[in-house]
Design a protein that fits this description.
Length: about 270
Amino acid sequence: MPRLKFPAPPIPPAFQPKPKRPGTGNGKVKPADQAAEAGIHVVDWIDERTSLSGGLRWLMFRKVPRGTNWFYTLGSATLFAFLSQAVTGVFLAMFYDPSATHAYESVRYITNEAFLGQFVRGMHRWGSTVMVILVFLHMARTFFFGAYKYPRELNWVIGVVLLILTMTMAFTGYLLPFDQRSYWATIVGVNINGTGPLIGPYLSDFLRAGPEFGALTLSRFYSIHMLLVPGLIAALIGAHLYLVAKLGTTAPPWIEAEEDPAAELHKAEV
């Protein structure tokens, strides 16, 4: 079955470059103008070889339904929280040592001695709580606005998986300071997972990296927290955004859909 190809939407007039007035500058070119022209040439050179502008226009310049309000920004806020977690997590990983003997000491060094370490760790710690709250609020908005219905069921499923992965990130990251509170709290959490039906015991053994809670458990949690789950989240966010751009957003439930004028004329003739 042939696929329909839709042209990229045109650039809005507000974003199009304005023509220069005749005689502007009296023939003198300022350094700022030269820098701007050089930047434009670089962007044009890249776009000519990659055609990224069409995809960006298709993704960014979209029609939004009537009645769109601040509730629709919860998804973007969640994305910003994830990016903040990724950036701060990379900086923390530069100093963190995922070993049972040095993990606590590395966290203490980050907090007390590293330049801006306490600030970055605080952003990462409280940012995880903010991200969990935003994910739940975003899911609640989607549910109460009925945005999970046809044809957006797949996007809803991806959102549920992202919620589970976010909780997994919060759970695996709690052990990394490796102090008394995180150690015993993680043991309780792993034992609770072990009570699940069928896969519960296998899940506990996977998280512990064996039958007992030991040094390998910290490495297992660190690899899940730093490598496995962030990669899955990034891939699913890409699919989530693609479906949002492709299917559009739904209007609030209190906004009535506008009827097609042709349909109204057909009713009047009948």
